[in-house]
Amino acid sequence: MLFACKLRTDVDFLGRPAVERSRAEGVRRRLISFALEDPDVMPWGGELVLRDGVPAGQVMSAAWGATVGAGVGLAYVWDPAGGVVDRDALLASSYAVDVGGQRCPATVSLRPMVDPDGTAVRA
Question: pTM to 2 decimals?
Answer without folding.
Answer: 0.79
